[in-house]
Amino acid sequence: MSLTNPHLKFASQAVAKPYFVFALMLFVGQILFGLIMGLQYVVGDFLFPLIPFNVARMVHTNLLIVWLLFGFMGAAYYLIPEEADRELHSPKLALLLFWVFAIAGVLTILGYLLVPYAGLAKLTGNELLPTMGREFLEQPTITKAGIVVVALGFLYNIGMTLLKGRKTAISMVMMTGLIGLAVFFLFSFYNPENLARDKYYWWWVVHLWVEGVWELIMGSMLAFVLIKITGVDREVIEKWLYVIIAMALITGIIGTGHHFFWIGAPGVWLWLGSIFSAMEPLPFFAMVLFAFNMVNRRRREHPNRAAALWAIGTTVTAFLGAGVWGFLHTLAPVNYYTHGSQITAAHGHLAFYGAYAMIVMTMISYAMPRLRGIGEAPDARAQTVEVWGFWLMTLSMMAITLFLTAAGVVQVWLQRLPADGAAMSFMNTMDQLAVFFWLRLVAGVLFFIGLGCYLFSFRQRGRLPVAAAVTA
Predict the structure, then answer these.
(1) For residues 31 and 447, what is the distance between their CA atoms, to the nearest angstrom?
(2) CB–CB of 95/15 below 8 Å?
(3) Under a CB-based contact definition with an 8 Å cutoff, are residues 358 and 310 in contact?
(4) How far apart are CA 225 and CA 231, in angstroms?
(5) Mean pLDDT, residues 108-121 taken together
């Protein structure tokens, strides 16, 4: 037990706190730029030329990726010492890497906002090793190199902790996912001149992150929290975890083929991509069964009911977003019409929120009371505010998804299905979708209010009565 914070098992777990705090700060920025984009969909010259749509979109998606990475790193720094049953190898290295990553991230975002993208490429020496200009991988080459350095230092720190400590299924699955995250990011440096080949390997970063190794990280975080809040035997939870990650890897890796339908790859991917992508909802459905089964078999009533709600909610929402909405347009004969439509945007929003944003917030909800020295859970008032935040964000994201799905269906109907030159032009089609974009904007504002509730819950300094706050 830590002497400086009796609610932490190891003092070095405290390094997770700045990662979690900064992740939430970036999350706020991501949603703000999402609202700017939502308004620009219906008021095209909003903030132009100060923040053009393409810049807002670039900042929005980059903040999403970076805040999730900070969340994953914070989660690893919190759970790995407990799983390894020893102090983190080097808390000082963890804090140093935090500042390096945070400063590099802030400077990159400021570069997007203050410097024209072509000028940013020239300023950062992109011509020496061209990597910029690709969606989600817009970061300057120097920033990408910095990410690699941070990732290597992070893996060294986590790896040495595990090497010297206890090995569990949870820690090994998380380590495997984190190594995969770092390895597949290296393909962001490969930028061939052939566009089809570029897109082929581009998905090795984008898809194999979010539909491959990130699922391992998600599964390990979920398993860790469920062990803590249910008291179910570790052996039972670890068996479920092995089944889930096996399905995630098999379907996720081969399912990459659903991105190869229309880029010039061999036609065999029409079959492989369709078949294995149709199986990708299985690991998410298994997570739903896993979570509900563990909660039903719980041996204790954990006082942090908000964390339990996040743990259950992330499995259901991830299944809907990544599973159901992914399946809606993953088969090649369907994707022929829906590819790149608003249906894709609907799937992306709910999948990222359900699978990854929610699991990070689950981990923060569980760990933050301990990191703040409160105990297992904050007081009832704080948890009530947090639960309000959960429902506002989750229901708002479901509304955003439904509005974008409706917009996508109308878009396909007007623009993709008509034959003999009867299809409506892209811009005229967008005009017909304006009502859905207005509704999406309203839902986005409600989501931001929900995020405010989640953040405000941490301002509550009270704690549960001593009798209810049993420390582990």
Answers:
(1) 8
(2) yes
(3) yes
(4) 10
(5) 96
Peptide bond into 91 cis (omega under 30): no
Three-state secondary structure string covering the chain:
CCCCCCCCCCHHHHHHHHHHHHHHHHHHHHHHHHHHHHHHHHCCCCCCCCCCHHHHHHHHHHHHHHHHHHHHHHHHHHHHHHHHCCCCCCHHHHHHHHHHHHHHHHHHHHHHHHCCHHHHHHHCCCCCCCCCCCCCCCCCHHHHHHHHHHHHHHHHHHHHHHHHCCCCHHHHHHHHHHHHHHHHHHHHHCCCCCHHHHHHHHHHHHHHHHHHHHHHHHHHHHHHHHHHHHCCCHHHHHHHHHHHHHHHHHHHHHHHHHHCCCCCCCCHHHHHHHHHHHCCHHHHHHHHHHHHHHHHCCCCCCCCHHHHHHHHHHHHHHHHHHHHHHHHCCCHHHHHHHCCCHHHHHHHHHHHHHHHHHHHHHHHHHHHHHHCCCCCCECHHHHHHHHHHHHHHHHHHHHHHHHHHHHHHHHHHHHHCCCCCCCCCHHHHHHHCHHHHHHHHHHHHHHHHHHHHHHHHHHCCCECCCCCCCCC
Cα distance between residue 100 and residue 107, in whole Å: 11
Both tokens assigned to 34:
């999402």
Say whether pLDDT at 469 is over 80.
no
Residues in the chain, overall count:
472
Query: Tokens standing for 23?
Result: 């992740």
- The residues, ordered by sequence, that sit 6+ positions from 325 with a Cβ below 8 Å of its Cβ are 343, 346, 347, 350, 351, 401, 405
Which pLDDT value is given to residue 6? Answer: 81
CA distance 411 to 396: 22
Q: Which residues contact 44 (CB under 8 A, 6 or more apart)?
A: 53
pLDDT digits (tens, 9 = 90+) for 276-285: 999 999 999 9
